[in-house]
Amino acid sequence: MRKDTIVIREIEAKDNPKIAKAIRTVLIEMGVPKVGTAYEDAALDCMTETYDQPKKAYFVVESGNDIIGGAGISPLDNYEGNVCELQKMYFMPEGRGKGLGSKMMNKCLDFAKQSGFKQCYLETLPYMDDARKLYRKVGFKSIDKPMGNTGHYSCTVWMLKDL
């Protein structure tokens, strides 16, 4: 896979089944519980519609005709305050180790800032070491308890970044 054939762009309706499959494939690979995580989110099968709202965006990583990753920004569910959440950031094996995580993170955080959010929150799992390393690299700090109520009770690592 050549780097110059990889594009990060906003999701389109034709991407819905591809990103749903990619996310579920990565979650299975990582041994993520199927309950209390993104795996069971109804939004996975209708990502374009879910993120086609004010202050929401989902970006995909396209390589040829394949979707090999994605990430999104949305207001934090069940939270009073100007905080967004980094959501559903996953990459297939062929998209890892190429700097795409940093590029995607920049795209998402730029969107969050342009949307007027003051902080960005995320939830992850303790054994997702590479993801946590990337989050810390861009300025996310661990916090002691969850914010809002995302329904992802199996995700036990919470992080926050000032924008």
From TrEMBL:
Transmembrane is among the record's keywords: no
The entry's keywords: Transferase
Domain N-acetyltransferase: 6-163
Gene3D superfamilies assigned: 3.40.630.30
Coiled coil residues, start to end: none
Pfam families linked: Acetyltransf_1 (PF00583)
This protein's name: GNAT family N-acetyltransferase
Origin species: Winogradskyella litoriviva
